[in-house]
Write a structure and sequence with these properties.
4 helices, alpha+beta, 8-stranded antiparallel β-barrel
């Protein structure tokens, strides 16, 4: 019997001005279970710290582990945090669960909102084009939201530096490898952020 997909929980912590290092230090000190990755923004919304955790889908833990009223590790963040957002995801069916390891010093998170009714077509199109694109630079995380905005897909590409990112993206476009076709008709909005993985991040 095939096991149920893992739930991935993306927590975006908006640190108070000048307190990003404090937030990261307190997250590290919490020694969180099931931690997949920790990033801070290099380009994007200033002062964001992002955590990705995963856990099995079950009656006992299907709800968020980050209940805001609890006196747990979040309490240590209250003095250095402006707000916090939590969204749960699943990996797309043909993408393996992300593995710990070093993928590159620069990670790019791209967040797209797609039109209602286009999700299955999106998955089929990406399934065809993604393997060649992932050979040019790894994409360890491609997931879709199952809470909040249910039209959201988040994908993370990894690079050694900004210069490699530019070269890879230009080559992918020139060779017709990526982006996958149909995006102009499918996307309602697109955002990106360039992220720096924390030293203690399992995926970095």
């Amino acid at each position: 019997m095939q096991s149920a997909p893992m739930i991935y929980e993306l927590t975006t912590i908006h640190a108070a001005a000048g307190r990003v290092k404090d937030v990261i230090a307190r997250v590290e000190a919490a020694r969180l279970d099931d931690l997949v990755a920790v990033w801070s923004t290099e380009f994007g919304r200033i002062n964001d710290v992002l955590l990705l955790r995963r856990f099995e889908r079950s009656a006992s833990n299907a709800e968020t582990k980050l209940l805001l009223g609890r006196a747990d590790w979040l309490s240590a963040l209250s003095a250095v945090t402006v707000d916090i957002d939590v969204t749960q995801f699943q990996m797309v069916p043909y993408v393996c669960d992300p593995q710990a390891g070093s993928y590159g010093a620069l990670h790019e998170m791209r967040t797209y909102v797609f039109r209602l009714g286009t999700f299955n077509e999106l998955l089929e199109t990406w399934k065809k084009y993604l393997p060649r694109r992932a050979m040019m630079s790894p994409a360890p995380i491609i997931m879709y939201s199952i809470t909040g905005n249910l039209q959201k897909i988040v994908h993370i590409w990894t690079y050694e530096n900004f210069e490699q990112r530019t070269l890879v993206r230009e080559k992918a476009l020139d060779e017709g490898v990526w982006p996958a076709p149909g995006g102009a008709e499918r996307w309602l909005s697109q955002e990106n952020a360039l992220l720096k993985p924390a030293i203690f991040s399992p995926l970095r």
